[in-house]
């Protein structure tokens, strides 16, 4: 019997200045795993078991779990390629909180697709995999956006191209930056947080968005980290979404007054992130956020780096 284990990390969508087009994978410095895992084993018929810290927050019915949808989607794509899919059992270890802004659904989707692709001998290439992951993410959040699935699958910081192939390109990662990431413990639905945004963006904000993204990419490629940090402000979503996040302004004010180079909402929130280039300051901000931004016992804060690797897997044959 073959068993495949796959892991997919948490991610920050948007990173303030790149609504829907910029994202980064996350890895806590303390070595803890911040991401979902799947274990896939050969079986007589399809089944899904859910375990892990946040398993109880998911729908009890496996048919309502996105991992089951991934399996069905993958099976259809295999059949369309003339390939046979044998029955499997999937165990999802759900470690990321739902509606957290940490790309929780993306992490389950990427772990499931990556695990399935490895289990069945890599029938799909990277671009096809990303396209399938984007489709499934779109089913959950109401519109296709790759800013979580792409970095979660590939690692690093990724910029979406808007094209079919390549779907995304990798940007240089600032090695000296720490990413403090604090989840407050409450749940914010991504689709609800998208629905509160206006359909049209004023011309002045559109010009700011374009300038910031252009300068950010240039600054990363020329190692001008101060300039990169200086354009990390969100003119698209944060003005509307911060009303959903208790203590957001206080968290920003403290972080920026205590050494953060940038501060913003991770994805659609409630997780916030602070960028620092000094470990002591990052740790201090993380501690402060733990005490003042976290709302309940589900919350947590980590000092993270952006890992070069995204999803990973290993296999055992008995
Ligand atoms: N494996 C899964 N992981 C996360 N969410 C799932 C999963 N399966 C189904 N869901 C549902 O998808 C929705 C995800 O909500 P969303 O706000 O998009 O979360 P996130 O922003 O954390 O990805 C929830 O309604 C949740 O119950
Ligand atoms: N670009 C999306 C990102 C959503 O991320 P999530 O982690 O909250 O699912 C958005 O801002 O809506």
UniProtKB/TrEMBL annotation:
Its EC number is 2.7.1.39. Pathway: Amino-acid biosynthesis; L-threonine biosynthesis; L-threonine from L-aspartate: step 4/5. The keyword DNA damage does not apply. Residues 65-156 form the GHMP kinase N-terminal domain. InterPro entries: GHMP_kinase_C_dom, GHMP_kinase_C_sf, GHMP_kinase_N_dom, GHMP_knse_ATP-bd_CS, Homoserine_kinase, Ribosomal_Su5_D2-typ_SF, Ribsml_uS5_D2-typ_fold_subgr. One of its GO terms (molecular function) is homoserine kinase activity. It catalyses: L-homoserine + ATP = O-phospho-L-homoserine + ADP + H(+). Keywords: Amino-acid biosynthesis, ATP-binding, Cytoplasm, Kinase, Nucleotide-binding, Threonine biosynthesis, Transferase. Catalyzes the ATP-dependent phosphorylation of L-homoserine to L-homoserine phosphate. This is Homoserine kinase. It comes from Alteromonas gilva. The lineage of its organism: Bacteria, Pseudomonadati, Pseudomonadota, Gammaproteobacteria, Alteromonadales.
């Amino acid at each position: 019997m073959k068993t495949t284990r796959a892991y997919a990390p948490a991610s920050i969508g948007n990173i303030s200045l790149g609504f829907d087009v910029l994202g980064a994978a996350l890895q806590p410095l303390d070595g803890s795993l911040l991401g979902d895992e799947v274990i896939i084993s050969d079986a007589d018929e399809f089944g899904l078991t859910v375990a892990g810290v946040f398993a109880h927050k998911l729908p009890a019915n496996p048919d309502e779990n996105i991992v089951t949808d991934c399996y069905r989607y993958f099976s259809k794509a295999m059949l369309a390629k003339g390939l046979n899919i044998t029955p499997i059992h999937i165990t999802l270890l759900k470690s990321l909180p739902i509606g957290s802004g940490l790309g929780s659904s993306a992490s389950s989707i990427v772990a499931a697709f990556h695990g399935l692709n490895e289990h069945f001998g890599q029938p799909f290439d990277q671009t096809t995999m990303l396209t399938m992951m984007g489709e499934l993410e779109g089913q959950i959040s109401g519109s296709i956006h790759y800013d979580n699935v792409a970095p979660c699958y590939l690692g690093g910081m990724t910029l979406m191209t808007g094209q079919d192939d390549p779907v995304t390109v990798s940007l240089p990662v600032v090695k000296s930056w720490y990413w403090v990431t604090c989840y407050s413990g409450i749940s914010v639905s991504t689709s609800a947080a998208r629905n509160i945004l206006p359909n049209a963006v004023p011309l002045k904000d559109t010009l700011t968005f374009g300038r910031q993204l252009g300068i950010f990419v240039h600054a990363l490629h020329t190692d001008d980290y101060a300039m990169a940090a200086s354009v990390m402000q969100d003119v698209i979503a944060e003005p509307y979404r911060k009303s959903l996040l208790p203590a957001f302004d206080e968290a920003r004010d403290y972080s920026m007054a205590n050494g953060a180079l940038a501060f913003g909402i991770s994805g659609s929130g409630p997780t916030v992130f602070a960028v620092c280039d000094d470990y002591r300051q990052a740790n201090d901000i993380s501690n402060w956020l733990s005490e003042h931004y976290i709302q309940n016992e589900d919350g947590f804060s980590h000092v993270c780096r952006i890992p070069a690797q995204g999803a990973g897997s290993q296999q055992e044959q008995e």
